[in-house]
Amino acid sequence: MSRLAPARTAAGRVCLAILIALVVVCAAWALLTAVGESDGAVTEGGARVFDDDVPAVANLDPRLRRALRQAATHAARNGIEIVVNSGWRSRKYQKQLLRRAVATHGSEEGAARWVATPDTSSHVSGRAVDIGPARATAWLSRYGARYGLCRIYRNEPWHYELRPEAIDRGCPSMYADARHDPRMPQ
Question: What is the structure's pLDDT at 106?
Fold first, then answer.
């Protein structure tokens, strides 16, 4: 054994300890930042609009949930199922979606076309729902005003919010995207 062997062994132990510490920190970070169903995350395939045990549905504004259920009941008569792909979201979940959008679109400005901040998102307040599949969005686009359900953004055919006045007057004009929505701070 060379006289450097003990130093290499000690250095190896230090490197291993650092590696283990990094793994533990990364795992802890993943647990702390992970979102789940209690934050409003919906499983692949979405949730039914009548799933009161799913927080993304249960925590929607009661008026929005009622209108959505009325629309879903009538859509079902036409063989169309309206699925909730996203509804109410916790601030933590919204923040995570925003971070992902910034990473995807390269900037906060680019992300703002698609994802609002936790302070401005209608999902966090339970006043917005993203629905699917495409047949359901097409049906709701055509008949949603009858229930006060309106598309808000032209770039998001799945995003609906309650506009009760639409029952009598039709849905208001859509914004190109969230950056043009006056409710969003610039």
Answer: 95
Q: Each residue of 94-142: pLDDT tens digit?
A: 999 999 999 999 999 999 999 999 999 999 999 999 999 999 999 999 9
C-alpha dihedral sign at 174, 89, 113, 104: negative
Residue 119 burial (CB < 10 Å; 0-12/13-18/19+)? exposed
Q: Alpha-carbon dihedral of residues 184, 135, 36, 112, nearest 10 degrees? A: -20
CA distance linking residue 30 with residue 4, whole number of Å: 39
pLDDT score at 29? 42
- What residues contact 88, with CB distance under 8 A and at least 6 apart? 40, 55, 56, 57, 58, 59, 60, 123, 124, 126
Q: Which domains does the chain have, with CATH numbers?
A: 37-180 (3.30.1380.10)
In this prediction, residue 20 has a pLDDT band, given cuts at 50, 70 and 90, of: low
